[in-house]
């Protein structure tokens, strides 16, 4: 119904990036959102001190440093003091509406260490999943539709999905407080991204820049008005 748990069969470049980065971290912890059958979760357990796997259909393996939480991600709330070195969220955000994705991404800022990383992917609207997908006609904020029958059967996805273009996906991340640091499209056409929580300094630079741009606009508008008044006065003086 929710597609195949790909990471049980093979790890992709983004999975490898998560493992590589976490391997170099001390006292590392990771939350694997929508972990599925846990292919990535098990690999994370080899390089991390603590792994929390979250899924509405939880896997049933047991490992000493892995905790599995069976929950609908939309209901996931954590105490403020719990912070992870990384959050992995592979191949699943498209099962949520845009609004739901926004809510969880905003909440996830509280679940991550200041220097932590989010490694996330979404199904691409320009992959074969987008063939005859009616959601293509909708703006991303309202997009939530079934795949074509062929694609539903081929990929075992029988629920509505929100497929993304890369600019839409990056905008979603940026607007919810994340700063994409690396992104790429997989061979299949899925969208892969590494992001960090937007730093206050970046936020302040954005605000300052936009304030400066505004004041520039105001200044040039003011100059134009002054110029127009001066010209009118000169014309009036000649025609007096
Ligand atoms: C295609 S699988 C990906 C599994 C794993 N991340 C991987 O890459 O192998 C999508 C997973 O998302 C889970 N899922 C979908 N909607 C969910 C929700 N609202 N809350 C929790 N899990 C959800 C499904 O149960 C499924 O295991």
Which secondary structure elements does this structure contain, and how are they paired or packed?
Elements (H helix, E strand, L loop, with lengths): L12 H11 L5 E5 L5 H9 L2 E6 L10 E5 L13 E6 L8 H11 L3 E11 L26 H7 L10 H10 L2 E8 L5 E7 L2 H39 L2
Parallel strand pairs: 1-2, 1-4, 2-3, 4-5
Antiparallel strand pairs: 5-7, 6-7
Bound molecules: S-adenosylmethionine.
Describe this structure in words.
The protein is 36% helix and 20% strand. The chain contains six helices and seven strands; from the N terminus they run αβαβββαβααββα. It has helices at residues 13-23, 39-47, 98-108, 149-155, 166-175, 200-238, and strands at residues 29-33, 50-55, 66-70, 84-89, 112-122, 178-185, 191-197. The chain has a seven-stranded mixed β-sheet, with helices on both faces. Helix 1 packs parallel to helix 2. The longest helix is centred in the C-terminal third of the chain and has 39 residues, at 200-238. Mean pLDDT is 88; it is low at 213-240. Bound molecules: S-adenosylmethionine.
């Amino acid at each position: 119904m929710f597609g195949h748990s790909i990471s049980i069969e093979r790890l992709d470049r983004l999975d490898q990036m998560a493992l590589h980065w976490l391997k170099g971290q001390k006292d590392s912890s990771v939350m694997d959102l929508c972990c599925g059958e846990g292919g990535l979760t098990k690999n994370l357990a080899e390089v991390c001190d603590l792994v929390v796997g979250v899924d509405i259909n939880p896997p049933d393996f047991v490992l000493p440093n892995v905790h599995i939480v069976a929950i609908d991600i939309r209901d996931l709330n954590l105490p403020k003091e719990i912070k992870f070195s990384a959050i992995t969220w592979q191949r699943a955000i498209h099962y949520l509406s845009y609004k739901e994705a926004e809510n969880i991404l905003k909440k996830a800022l509280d679940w991550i260490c200041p220097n932590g990383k989010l490694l996330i992917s979404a199904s691409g609207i320009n992959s074969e999943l987008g063939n005859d997908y009616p959601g293509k006609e909708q703006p991303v904020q309202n997009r939530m539709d079934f795949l074509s029958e062929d694609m539903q059967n081929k990929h075992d996805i029988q629920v509505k999905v929100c497929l993304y273009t890369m600019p839409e996906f990056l905008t979603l991340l940026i607007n919810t407080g994340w700063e994409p640091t690396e992104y790429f499209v997989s061979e299949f056409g899925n969208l892969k991204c590494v992001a960090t929580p937007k730093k206050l300094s970046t936020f302040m630079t954005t605000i300052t820049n936009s304030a400066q741009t505004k004041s520039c606009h105001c200044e040039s508008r003011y100059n134009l008005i002054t110029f127009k008044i001066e010209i009118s006065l000169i014309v009036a003086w000649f025609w007096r």
